[in-house]
Amino acid sequence: MKVGFLGPRATFTHLAVQAFFGEKIEEVAYSTIPQCIDAVAEGKVDYAVVPTENALEGSVNLTIDYLIHEQPLNIVGEIVSPIEQHLMVHPENTGKWENITRVFSHSHAIAQCHKFLHHTFNGITYDYATSTGAAAQYVSNHPDEAVAAIANELAAKEYGLEIVKENIHDYQYNHTRFAILHPAKKEYNSPLLSPDREKSTLMITLPSDQSGALHQVLSAFTWRKLNLSKIESRPMKTGLGNYFFIIDIDMRIDEVLIPGAIAELEALGCGVKLLGSYEAYSIKKSIKK
Ligand SMILES: O=C(O)C(=O)C[C@]1(C(=O)O)C=C[C@@H](O)C=C1
């Protein structure tokens, strides 16, 4: 079985893949989220794993938008993983790490460490990489540059870097959610982890110019006692003020309640699409070697 992920090796996404699928898979690293999503849509890999949301920085908009606007796929599972960010430099620069002039990492990783960066290197340049692993790889290949990467412990080992400051994320509770994607509505259960929640994700568009539409949408869930764990709006990209909503329900699709809510929403003139009904898993410990 082939599993695609946001690479290169030792990104947080790669670590989530290893914790969820174990070793009996063929890992295929892609350098961007759209490449990874395209690969599973085109059948080059069986599943794709991509980040969707971070506890400090919010949604990974590139993932959400690409799934909604470009490649409709099913979410067949979810992994939540603790995230520990470290500052690392090439070993030749260990003694002079405080003199770095650039920090390189994924935009979400830099955002998770803003307070640390502001206080430690006020005015430093941020360079954005496609992933934390790609940033670590770059620093490893450029010992002559005064640049540090923000990445995880495994990336430091993989790319031969020296961690000079550990745990630089600004808030202790730092977790990222990853979606497992597949073209069919097919369930995939981890051979290694036990699921701890069941979920369904819906995409909802509201009828235009109808007062109280969002209130009516929410009440379709409320009176059925369907607990919502997330509601988020994203632009439709068709005009200012046009939004769709992503809603997570704390339960798998059943035969009565969720189909009833969907029918009620459709009767109100909403567009409704089930993006997935799946098991959610969490990795309990921080990821080490
Ligand atoms: O760059 C990585 O290592 C990733 O797996 C991506 C990503 C993200 O997109 O949020 C995943 C987890 C961390 O929150 C930081 C970056």
From TrEMBL:
Reaction equations catalysed: prephenate + H(+) = 3-phenylpyruvate + CO2 + H2O
Pathway(s): Amino-acid biosynthesis; L-phenylalanine biosynthesis; phenylpyruvate from prephenate: step 1/1
The Prephenate dehydratase domain, residue ranges: 2-183
A family per Pfam: PDT
Single Gene Ontology MF annotation: prephenate dehydratase activity
Record-linked SUPFAM superfamilies: ACT-like (SSF55021), Periplasmic binding protein-like II (SSF53850)
Keyword annotations of the record: Amino-acid biosynthesis, Aromatic amino acid biosynthesis, Lyase, Phenylalanine biosynthesis
Top-level EC class: lyase
Enzyme Commission number: 4.2.1.51
Annotated Gene Ontology cellular component terms: cytoplasm
Family annotation (PROSITE patterns): ACT (PS51671), PREPHENATE_DEHYDR_2 (PS00858), PREPHENATE_DEHYDR_3 (PS51171)
InterPro entries: ACT-like_dom_sf, ACT_dom, Chor_mutase/pphenate_deHydtase, Preph_deHydtase, Preph_deHydtase_CS
Positions marked as site (Essential for prephenate dehydratase activity): 176
GO biological process: L-phenylalanine biosynthetic process
Domain ACT, chain residue ranges per copy: 202-279
Name under which the protein is recorded: Prephenate dehydratase
Native source organism of the sequence: Metabacillus litoralis
Name of the encoding gene: pheA
